[in-house]
Amino acid sequence: MANLSRRNFMKLGIASGAFLAAGELMSPSLAGAVKVKMGGKDFNYLTNAERKGIPTACWSCVTRCAAMGFVEDGRLVKMESNPKSIRTLGKMCAKGQSAPNEVYFPDRILYPMKRAGARGEGKWKRITWDAALTEIAGKLKKLRDDGHPEKFMFHYGRMKGSSSKLIKSVFLGTYGTKTISGHTSICEGGKWVAQELTWGKHYDNWDFDQTKFVLNFGSNIQEAHTNHVPTSQRLIRAKVERGVKSVTFDVRLSNTAAKSDEWIPIKPGTDGAVALAMCNVVMQNNLYDKDFFKFIRATENVNASVDEKIAVLKAHLKQYTPAWAEKISGVSASKIESIAKTFANTKPAVVISYRGAVAHYNGNDTERAVQMLAAITGNIDNPGGRCRGIGPKWKYPKGPKDKPKAKKLKLAHGFPGTVAYPNHGVCQQVLPMIKDGKAGRPEVYMWYCHNPVYVNGDNQGNIDVLKDEKMLPFTVTSNIVYDEASKLADMILPDATYLERWDWEDMVCPTQVPEHYIRQALVKPLGEARDLGDVVIELAEKMGMPLGVGASKEEFVKTSHEMTAKAVKGFPGFDYMKKKGVWHDKDAKPKYYQHKKEIKDLGGAILDEATGVYWDPKKAHAKQPEKGYAATKHAYKGYVGQKMGDKVYKGFPPDKVNKTGYLELYSGLLKMKGHPALPTYVPIPTHEKMKSNELVLTTYKVAIHIHSRSTHRKWLSEVYHDNPGWINTKTAAGLGIKTGDKIKVKSSIGEIVTTANVNGKIVPGVIAISMHVGREESGRYGSGKKSPFAHDDDPDLKNKFWDTYGTHPNWIIPNANDPINGQQAWMDTVVTVTKA
Amino acid sequence: MSKKNSLSRRDLLKTGSAVAVATAATGLLPDTEAEAAKRKRKAKKLPRWAMVVDLRRCIGCRGCCIADKGEYNTALGRFNTVVKNVEFGEYPETEKHFLPRLCNHCAGDESKEWQVPPCVEICPESKSGERLKMGKEKYRTGATYKRPDGLILLDPKLCIGCYKCVDACPYGVRSPDPNVKLTRPDREKDFGVGKCTFCRHRIDEGITTSCTNTCQGRARNFGDLNDKRSTVAKLAKEHKLLENKDKSTLLPNEKTNPHVFYIDPDGILEKYNKKLSKETKFAEFKSGFE
Fold first, then answer.
1. A600-606 contacts, C-beta under 8 A, 24 or more apart
2. Which of A241, A324, A331, A373 has the fewest CB atoms nearer than 10 Å to its CB?
3. ipTM
4. Could you tell me which chain A residue has the CA closest to the CA of B157?
5. Domains, chain B, ranges and CATH?
6. A34 and B204 in contact by Cβ < 8 A?
C-alpha cells in the first residue's frame, strides 16, 4: 500500500524550494481529498504521526468530563474530550486541556518525604515507600488496637466515584473511623441542604436543551460549574440556536452575565428577596401552575387541599412586594415584576442558582425561594425545567462484611448547636474545632486532594492549628503539589495524578439519561508517585486488615465493572469501557416527572399519619417505629411513598433528613429547629450594621483555574496569574482609588494588600477578588518558589515571564456559616478598602 | 497517516496540477490494485480552508487557547490563538464580548499579480522562491508561503530567522518561537517563527483543528469554503460574510483579505479594529483574561 505522506516524500531526498512545493502537494488537505470531522484522533504537528488516544475522564473540576488522552512516546501530550460522550459532546474547557501540565510540572512531588526540621520549616528528607507506610500503619494500628480508631481523621477535598468508595467506604469503613470530613460546605453544600429540605436528594440539572427561558441567580455557569462543560455549552447553544432569552443576577459582570440578554447587578446576599418577590408576583397574579400544587407541601397539614396551599402561600408572600425587594436588592420593582411574569408565562422555563446566591449567611432560604419559584410555576423535573440530576449507578466490592461499628470525633459538622442541618459537613470549622478541643483531637490527621490552609477561610488560623504539634501530633497528606498545607505536614506521600490512575465515574448527565464512564491511567505514575487508592490497599495489609478488593484500584474498578454488568441491563463490561470510555443505554428514556409515579406495591411499608409518609421501619433499621417517621433517626432510609389523597406517589423521596414526599416549601424540619418553615428573607446581620465607608468582599472563579489548586499548571497560570480587586467606578472615586493603585483591604480578622481594578463591571459597594491565585507555595509557576526536590527539566522554565502571583482573599474571610446548612458564607465579609 | 485519507496518485493528478515536481514525485510511486480501486473516487475541487467564528457563541472559556498550547506545546509567552475581551459602556449598561483571534490565513490583495498577504510578500525566501501554478491557483514557495488552498505556512528548513514577517503582519499573530528550531547554516537566528497552521497536520488526516474541536459554543467553525455543503460555506452564505468583508473580517482596510470570518451582529470588530495598530498589535495578541 503506497501511502504517499509528506514524511515518505521527504525521504525521497528532494531538496530546496521545489522539495517543499512537492511535499505540500502530497498533503491530502490540499488535494481536496479530506472531509474534516470532529476529534477522536490527534497527530504530531511536525511528523503527522498518530498519537495514541486513550479514553479516560478529567478530574480538574467535579464535572469530571469524559475525555481522551493522547500519548506519544509514553508521554501525555494532549487532552481532548471524548467525542462519544453524551454529556460532553466532545467539548472540553481550558482547565481540562491543561492536563499534561498536571503530570509534568517541574515542582511535582515524586517521592515520599518526611520532615527533617521543625514543622513548617521546609526541611525535608526523602524516604522509601516502605518506611512511610510502615510508620503510618504503625500509628494507625496502634490507635485501632487501643480502641480509638476515631483518632484517625481523614479530610478530603475532591474524592468521587470509585476513589471515594474504595478509600472512604471500604478502607476507612474497615478501619473503623468515621472522623471524616469532606469539603462540600466550602463549595455549595448549603445549596444541597436546601434541596434536601425541599425536594429530597440533591442535585439540580438544568434542561437547557428544551427550555425557553433561563433565569439565573448567581451561577457563573459559563466559566465554572459542578457540571460545567455539559451544561454551559447547552446554554449558549439554546441561546443562539433557539433564541432562548436569559437573565442573570450577579454582583459582577461574569462571562455568564455578559452572555445573558440582561445582566442585573444585585447587592450581595439579597437574591432571596428578589426571588421571594417574584414568587409573590406569580401568586398574586394567579400565574401559578395549579396542577403542580398537588405535590407541594405549604402548610403543617400534609392533607391540605390545593386551594388551601395556594391561599397559604399567597398570604405568606404578600409581604414580599417588588417595591420592598427593590429597597433591599437595588433591583427595580418593575424589573422584578416583568421578569417574574415572563418566567411564569414562558413554558417551560428554568431557574438556576449557585454560589453567588447561596454562599451567604441566608443562602439556605435563597435556594428554597428559588425552588419555590420553580415549583409554583410547574418547572420541576419537567422537560426544559429544573430537573433532578440523573447519574449512572455502579456496583462495587464493599470489602470485609464484618466491619466494626465506626467511631467518630464530632469534628465534621460544626460547633454544637450552630448548624441546624449540616448534612454536608462544616469543613471550614474542622480546624477551629480541633483548636477548641472540646470534641477531641485526632492523633493522625490526613488530608487528600485538599488544602486545609488555603481553601477554608481564616488562612492564618488554619496555619496556627496545623503547625501546632500539641493539637495535631501527626499530619500526613497524599498530594501532587507542595502547597501551603503540605508544607505543614509531617509526611507527604506522592499521589498519582488523575492521568495516572483508574476510576469509574458517575457525574450527572444533562440529558436525564445516565452515562457510565471511566478513567484509565494514560501513563505510568511519574517518579514514585502512587494512587492513594492503591496505597490504602497496602496500608490495610500492613495493619493486618486485608480489604479483599484486589491488589490495586485497577482491580477494584475492573471488579466493579463485572458487578455492574450483572446489575445494569446492557452494560457492556470492562473491555468495552477501556476501548470506548463511555456507555449509555441507547433505549433509555430521559427521566422526567419522577414524582408522578404511583406506588402500587407498598411492601412492608406502614403509614405515618402525621406526615402521610409510607415507610418501611425495617429498611430504616428503626428500633421503635412507634416513635413515628419524623422522630426516628434515619427513617428516611425506609421511605416508600407519599400519600396524597387516596393514592400513594413516589413524590420527592427524602435523603439525609426525614422530610415528607412532598416538595416541601413548608418545612416541618426547619420549624422544629426554630427556623421559619416557609422560605423567608433574613437579612445578613453583618450587612445590617455596615457603615457608609464599608464594602462587601465577594469572591469568584474564572474559566481557566480550578479553585486554589491549578496554579502549578503553566498554561493556566500563563493566562491568569494575577487577580486585582474589582471595584465599581463610582465607589472607587469616593475612595480616591484608581486602577493600578495598591490598596489595603481590611476585615475583622486581618488585612491584605492588593491592586485595584476600577471598572463598570461590578455593583457599587463591593470589592470582588477571585480565589485562585495568591499562592505562597505552588511551585515556580504558581508561586515563584521552587518546591523541595523539584526538578528543572521543563524547558519552559526559562520562558516563564510573569513574576506576580496575585493575592489570596481567604486570609481575611472569617470561617462563618449559614446557621441552617453550614455553608461557608464566602460572599458576606465586610471590609474597608483604602489606598495602601 | 490514516489509510482513509491517503492520497492516490490519481487524486493528485486529478487536482490538475501543472507542477513538474509533483508529477515526477508521483511517478516514483508503484501502482497497485488498491490504488486502482481508489481511482474510482473522484478528487474534489481544490479546497479553500477558512474559519467562521460566530461571536454570539463564544463564552470566553479559553478552551481553544489551551487546546492550542497542548497541540503545539507552544512555548510560554506566545500563543497561536487568543480570546480578547472587548468591553465598553458605562455601569450598569456595561458590555463584555469575546473575540477569538488567530492567524487570518489571508488571501492577500486581489489586485496584485501574486496574490499573497504581507507576511509572504516580505519573506526574502518567498521572493526568491519558485512561481508555480496548481489548477487555477498561483502558488509560490518560500519560508513563509501561501498554499493554493489558502493555508499560510512556514518552513523552518528555509527560514533564516529575519523576523520580517513578524513585523509585516498587521495583526501581530506571528512571534519568534523558541520551539521552532532553524537548521539552515546561513540562518540569522536559531529559532524561527510560530503561528497558527489551521492544524495542517490534523486536517490532512480528516480531523478538524484543535480549537474548533474543543469549542463549547461551536463559535469556531472550520472547513472548505469551496465546498457548498460545508458548515463554513453555509454560514458564509447565510450571514453574507464574503459580500461584507469590511464587517466580517479584522482590519479590512489593510486589504489582506482574511479567511477568518466573524459573525458579528453586535459590531464588535469595528470597535476592536480601533484598538489594533502597529503599536498595539503584539500586546493585543497576548492572552489576557479580565
1. A602/A640, A602/A641, A602/A648, A603/A640, A605/A638, A605/A640, A605/A641
2. A241
3. 0.95
4. A16
5. 1-43 (no CATH), 49-107+198-284 (3.30.70.20), 118-194 (3.30.70.20)
6. yes
